[in-house]
Please model this.
Amino acid sequence: MQLHLRLTFAVFLCALFLITGCDKEDTFKNPADVGFNVGMNPQGIAPSDDLTFFDGYVILHRFTLIGKRAVGEDFEFSRTFPNGLKVPFYNNLTFEDLNFELPQGTYTNLTVRFETRSSSLPGVFVEGNYDYNNPLKPSSTVHLAWNAAKTFEVAVQRPTGSNDFVLSETKQELAQIIFQPKRWFVNVTELMLENASFVTTPSQEQIMTIDQVTNIAIFTAIDSEIGGALSATL
Model:
């Protein structure tokens, strides 16, 4: 009789352990809703305070999330947009295609990787304005354009700068990915901007285009900085 009771109790403990373990495993697999958006911070240090930015967009070809958790399996999710997903930098919209159900739990790292592709339409475009030192010279509208494929990668952080955070199925999160175009000009001098070429439209608007074929020296300088001056905050 005692042996039977011991066996029954042992079986009960084993079953309880398995159920508890499964519950914990299922908990770590439960999804948390996380949305992503892409924007632009026009502030920062530039070669001249007369260089300002106010608009732009990115056209996403692929968007990838790479997650590492304290408990639970690492993962990598990707979405591809064959026709491109155009995300304006200034908008109050959230894009359903950039909403993900991620495993909940304590994260030690969540990396976002997104790509544009080569196209006649710029995959990254920023619009701004430059006021010349000569007050008699009309200001130029500035167009920064990347037509070649670009890949960006950034770790998601809390506002404190920590890479560690918790995702819960009970709380929806929004991560803001921010470009900082003024910081791209760290190696550009004011003289380079003053002497940059521009075209004048029939309506007498001056447009200074900075891309792979126009104002190449400036483009080369900012192209090397565009990926570094990127943040993602949850």
